[in-house]
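Q: What structure does this chain adopt?
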Amino acid sequence: MSAAELIAEDPPEAGAPPWMATFADLMSLLMCFFVLLLSFSEMDAQKYKLIAGSMKQAFGVQNQISAQDIPRGTSIIAQEFSPGRPDPTPIPSVQQQTTDQDLQTLDVLDRDPGTNPDKSLTELNPDEAQELLQKVLEEKIEETKLDAEALANALSEEINQGMVDIETAGRSITIRIRERGSFRSGSATLNPDFVPVMAKLRSALTSVAGDIAVEGHTDNIPISTALFRSNWDLSAQRALSVAHELLEFDELADERFLIIGHADTRPHMENSSIENRASNRRVEIIVRQDLDEETSDTINEIQASNPDILSTLNLN
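A:
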């Protein structure tokens, strides 16, 4: 039997084969499945930007820059790209460096409104330099007065009782401890009743900056006992007793202290009466506050062009 006869006897069935329907259903289900997966997924825009940025740095992106003139001496292809990377040209500008990237404003030197901001400190005329220096020092002296007021508030009761005096001079604070209530006559041991006063003073000094000099003073009546050969011994021992009390509990650093005995060489008042001699028997705690480095540099720069300027200032 020939091939033509076989085809004629068994013609192919019309339509798609039976397995095609099953295959089409499977493809439809797979497509629905992946569509559902895509709908359930979430895209992290932040991570996408990071990945895109990393790829940009890795592969490079050529920026197109509009050119005013057609580049000369190059091919037509080169016209689609930037002709070159320009080097920065130094120009007069005010620049500032900072390690804090969150700052919203620049630090500006607070100059006196009457001075020319374009001038350096060494170029100021004598009147401008004197005005600027007066302002700088008065601000620092005002800070010292505020510290003295804080000490006075802490010792207000003792000041009212005449046991302690507080005064300022420039950048120094003097806390004067009178003999009354603090020491017995001819003794260098603090009275137990005065120890709480020293505790309040110690606590107040922790918040006051500066070196501390503890200086003992006596009147001009000579003393010679088994404990003290002279007023030098007595004044030094009283200063040492006060210093030891301030250094209790390690609230104040040892490096801040200086102990001095003056005997009767620096009287507070003339030794002409009993009251005056009692006033001279004292221990003075002097807090000397130095200028910060920035202020010192400013003053030194002004003095470089005006050496006698400090003598013209009235800072009492």
